[in-house]
Write a structure and sequence with these properties.
Blueprint lengths: L9 H13 L2 H8 L4 H26 L5 E5 L6 H10 L3 E5 L3 H11 L6 E2 L10 E6 L10 H7 L10 H19 L2 E10 L3 H10 L4 E3 L13 E6 L1
Parallel strand pairs: 1-2, 1-4, 2-3, 4-5
Antiparallel strand pairs: 5-7, 6-7
Helix pairs in contact: 1-4, 2-3, 3-4
């Protein structure tokens, strides 16, 4: 870990606060929850900002200035670390999210702060990156229901579909392979603890050494703790 201050700079905190103030939560409600959108954001808005800022502090200590980061499936929870990278480390960030409505809503609040989201598939991102953020993507219950159920220990043996699981597994292998090929070495992966096996499997297949940090950090919306993996 680099010996940097954990504390975010005032300009970063101000930008984060301004964005969270300006976001159209009503527009995000149908994206994040099927019903009770007001209640959802009343409960999650402040924790999302606070816990996201805590994670941004951790990311800050592990990155060097003027690098490139790829954020896969980036949404409101990723705003604090994204803003930190742009404002404090002068890094280039590629924030990808396939949900066009969410991208448009977030860009309305973020664009004036130097942050732009895109609805292009992250697999199409150009160039290489020294940091890839891939949190709750490889085990997404909407995209990979059978694989996710197994990952989280929620498999019902009477309904589990092994053929569908095999298809999802192959899809995630290919997705992880495509994304991780974009990582320069040495590089940093930020991921959820449930996704660690996909990252380490890739490293072992490519004969890359890696270190999974012992500590993990809570998130506000999906509740998946995140961790950091260093690829040598």
């Amino acid at each position: 870990m680099n010996k940097k201050s954990l504390t975010l700079q005032p300009k970063t905190r101000q930008a984060i606060a301004a964005i969270f103030q300006d976001i159209d939560y009503a527009a995000l409600a149908p994206i994040y929850c099927e019903e009770g959108g007001d209640a959802f954001w009343n409960a999650h808005r402040t924790p999302c900002k606070r816990m996201g800022s805590k994670i941004a502090e951790q990311v800050k200590t592990r990155l060097t200035p003027k690098g490139r980061s790829l954020y896969v499936g980036a949404g409101i929870a990723e705003i604090p670390p994204l803003i930190m990278e742009v404002t404090e480390l002068n890094r280039s960030v590629a924030a990808h999210n396939l949900r066009t409505d969410e991208v448009e809503t977030l860009n309305q609040a973020c664009h004036s702060h130097g942050l732009t989201f895109t609805d292009i598939d992250a697999q199409e991102a150009k160039g290489t990156f020294d940091h890839i953020w891939i949190v709750s993507v490889l085990n997404d219950p909407e995209q990979f229901p059978e694989l996710s159920a197994l990952s989280y220990g929620r498999v019902n043996p009477t309904t589990f579909n092994p053929l569908q699981f095999q298809h999802e597994r192959n899809t995630v292998f290919a997705l992880a392979n495509t994304l991780l090929k974009k990582l320069t070495r040495p590089g940093l992966i930020t991921t959820s603890i449930e996704e660690i096996p996909w990252i380490t499997n890739y490293c072992e297949q490519q004969d890359l050494s890696y270190i999974v940090e012992d500590n993990d950090y809570p998130t506000a919306i999906v509740k998946d703790p995140i961790c950091f993996i260093h690829i040598a």
